[in-house]
C-alpha cells in the first residue's frame, strides 16, 4: 500500500499556467474560431465573454472550492463534502467524463502531430481537393491515427509520472509561454497579408443582426467547453492549491488567459482566410482541411514563410492539445492512485492503457471498423456526444446545485474568502449566480443540445 504526502504546486505562476493549460486547448484554437465564424464574429465574442463572467467563472470557483477543501481526487472530494450521500456520484461522473474524453481527445491530438510532421516534410501542398483527400485518407487509415494516438498518450504519460511539480507544472511553464509566442507570431503574419483587414473587421466589429437565441446558447456551451468545466480537471488541480490561493482571483486570471487565446486564434485564422476568399464558417474541418489550403494560397509568393507558418501552427495545436490532455489524464491518474493505493506510475499506466484502447477503437470506427456504430453513428461521434452534450452539462448542473444548495454556506464562504483573510465583496454575487443563474443556464444548454427547444 502506497501512502504519499499530498502534492502541491510549487509557485503561483506554475499553478496558474498549469490550470490555464488545462482549460486552453483545441476548444480555443479549433472550436472557438469556427463557432465565432458561424455566429457573426464579434457579436458572438461579446456574448461569449458575458457567458464566461456569468457561467464560467462561478462554475470554476465552485470546482476550486470542492477540490481545495477536500485535497483529494475528484471522486473522493465530492464524497468528503457530501458525507457519503448520493451527491458523491457527481464526483465519479467527473472522473468518468475525464477518462472518456481523454481517450477520444487523444485521437484528435494525434492528428495534430501527424500534420506537424507533414508540415516538416512538405506534404501540405496542393489543391483544395488534395487537402480534402489527404485528411480523409489519413483519418480513415487503419494504423497511422492509432500510432499517433499512442505517441501523444506516451508523451502525456511521461509528464504525468513525474508528478505535479516536476511533471505538470514544469511542462506548463515551458509549453504555455511557447504557445503564446507561436500564436502571436502567426497572428502578426496573418494580419500583414493583403486583404487581412476584412478578417480583423469581421472578428472585432459586432453584427448584432445575427444574434439569435441559438447564438446565446452556443456561447454558453462554448464557455463551458472552453474552460473545461465538469471534466474533473479543475477540481483535481485545485486539490494541489495552497490554502493561501485566492480562488476568485485565480479563476479570473485563468478566464482571461483562456479568452485571450481564443480571440488570438480568431485573429490568426480569419485574416488569412479572408485574404484568400475562404469562408470562415467551415466547421470542425477548419484546421485540417481549410487552413492548410489557406496557408498554401496566402503565402504562395513567400514559400519559406508559408512553410514556417504552417509548421508553427501545427506545433501550436499540438501543444494546446497536449496541455489539455495532461490535465485530463491527471484526473483519472489521481483517482486510481488514491483509491487503489498504488504508485503514480502504476496509476498512470492504467489510464494510458485504458485511454489508448478507447482512442484506438474510436479511430478505427472512422475507417476499417466503421461497423462499430450506435444508432448509425460512429463511436468517435458517440463518445463526443455523450461526454460533451450529456455528461458535461449534467455534471456542471449538479455541481452548482451541490455547492449552492447542499454544501453549508459557511464552508463555501470560508473557502471563497480564505477564511476571512480576503475581501468577500463578490461572495454574494457569486453565491446568487451559482444557486440560480448557473443551473438555469446549464439546463437551457442541455435541453437545447437535446433538441427540446
UniProtKB/TrEMBL annotation:
Keywords, A to Z, come to: Membrane, Symport, Transmembrane, Transmembrane helix, Transport
Provide the membrane topology annotation: Multi-pass membrane protein
Keyword Transport applies = yes
The primary site where this protein sits is membrane
Pfam families, A to Z = SNF
Segments spanning the bilayer are 12-30, 42-66, 86-107, 146-164, 176-196, 216-240, 252-274, 304-326, 347-366, 386-407, 428-447
Its Gene Ontology molecular function terms?
symporter activity
What are the subcellular locations of this protein?
Answer: Membrane
* UniProt cross-references to InterPro entries, sorted A to Z: Na/ntran_symport, SNS_sf, YocR/YhdH-like
Instruction: Output the Gene Ontology cellular-component terms.
Output: membrane
Q: CDD domains, alphabetically? A: SLC6sbd_Tyt1-Like
- Keyword Transport on entry: yes
NCBIfam families named in the record = Na_transp
| Protein family | Belongs to the sodium:neurotransmitter symporter (SNF) (TC 2.A.22) family.
This chain belongs to the protein called Transporter
Q: Which organism is it from?
A: Prevotella denticola CRIS 18C-A
Amino acid at each position: 500500500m502506497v501512502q504519499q504526502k499530498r502534492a502541491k504546486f510549487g509557485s503561483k505562476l506554475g499553478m496558474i499556467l498549469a490550470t490555464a493549460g488545462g482549460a486552453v486547448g483545441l476548444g480555443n484554437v479549433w472550436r472557438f474560431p469556427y463557432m465565432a465564424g458561424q455566429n457573426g464574429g464579434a457579436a458572438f465574442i461579446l456574448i461569449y465573454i458575458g457567458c464566461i463572467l456569468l457561467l464560467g467563472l462561478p462554475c470554476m470557483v465552485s470546482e476550486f472550492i470542492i477540490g481545495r477543501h477536500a485535497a483529494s481526487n475528484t471522486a473522493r472530494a465530492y464524497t468528503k463534502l457530501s458525507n457519503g450521500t448520493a451527491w458523491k456520484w457527481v464526483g465519479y461522473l467527473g472522473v468518468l467524463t475525464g477518462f472518456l474524453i481523454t481517450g477520444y481527445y487523444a485521437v484528435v491530438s494525434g492528428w495534430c502531430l501527424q500534420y506537424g510532421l507533414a508540415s516538416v516534410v512538405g506534404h501540405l501542398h496542393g489543391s483544395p481537393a488534395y487537402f480534402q483527400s489527404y485528411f480523409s485518407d489519413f483519418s480513415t487509415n487503419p494504423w497511422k491515427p492509432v500510432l499517433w494516438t499512442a505517441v501523444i498518450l506516451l508523451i502525456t504519460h511521461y509528464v504525468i509520472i513525474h508528478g505535479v511539480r516536476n511533471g505538470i507544472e514544469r511542462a506548463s511553464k515551458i509549453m504555455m509561454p511557447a504557445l503564446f509566442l507561436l500564436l502571436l507570431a502567426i497572428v502578426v503574419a496573418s494580419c500583414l497579408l493583403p486583404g487581412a483587414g476584412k478578417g480583423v473587421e469581421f472578428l472585432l466589429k459586432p453584427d448584432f443582426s445575427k444574434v439569435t437565441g441559438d447564438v446565446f446558447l452556443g456561447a454558453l456551451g462554448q464557455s463551458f467547453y472552453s474552460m473545461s468545466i465538469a471534466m474533473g480537471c479543475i477540481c483535481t488541480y485545485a486539490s494541489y492549491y495552497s490554502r493561501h490561493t485566492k480562488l476568485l482571483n485565480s479563476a479570473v486570471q485563468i478566464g482571461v488567459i483562456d479568452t485571450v487565446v481564443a480571440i488570438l486564434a480568431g485573429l490568426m485564422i480569419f485574416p488569412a482566410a479572408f485574404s484568400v476568399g475562404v469562408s470562415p464558417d467551415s466547421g470542425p474541418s477548419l484546421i485540417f482541411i481549410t487552413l492548410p489550403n489557406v496557408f498554401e494560397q496566402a503565402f504562395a509568393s513567400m514559400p519559406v514563410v508559408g512553410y514556417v507558418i504552417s509548421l508553427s501552427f501545427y506545433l501550436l495545436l499540438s501543444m494546446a492539445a497536449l496541455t489539455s490532455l495532461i490535465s485530463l489524464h491527471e484526473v483519472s491518474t489521481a483517482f486510481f492512485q488514491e483509491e487503489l493505493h498504488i504508485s503514480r506510475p502504476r496509476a498512470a499506466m492504467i489510464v494510458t492503457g485504458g485511454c489508448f484502447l478507447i482512442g484506438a477503437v474510436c479511430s478505427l470506427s472512422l475507417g476499417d471498423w466503421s461497423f462499430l456504430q450506435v444508432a448509425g453513428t460512429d463511436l468517435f461521434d458517440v463518445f463526443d456526444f455523450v461526454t460533451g452534450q450529456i455528461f458535461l452539462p449534467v455534471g456542471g448542473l449538479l455541481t452548482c446545485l451541490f455547492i449552492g444548495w447542499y454544501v453549508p454556506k459557511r464552508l463555501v464562504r470560508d473557502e471563497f474568502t480564505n477564511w476571512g483573510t480576503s475581501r468577500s465583496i463578490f461572495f454574494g454575487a457569486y453565491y446568487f449566480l451559482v444557486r440560480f443563474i448557473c443551473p438555469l443556464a446549464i439546463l437551457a444548454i442541455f435541453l437545447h443540445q437535446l433538441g427540446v427547444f
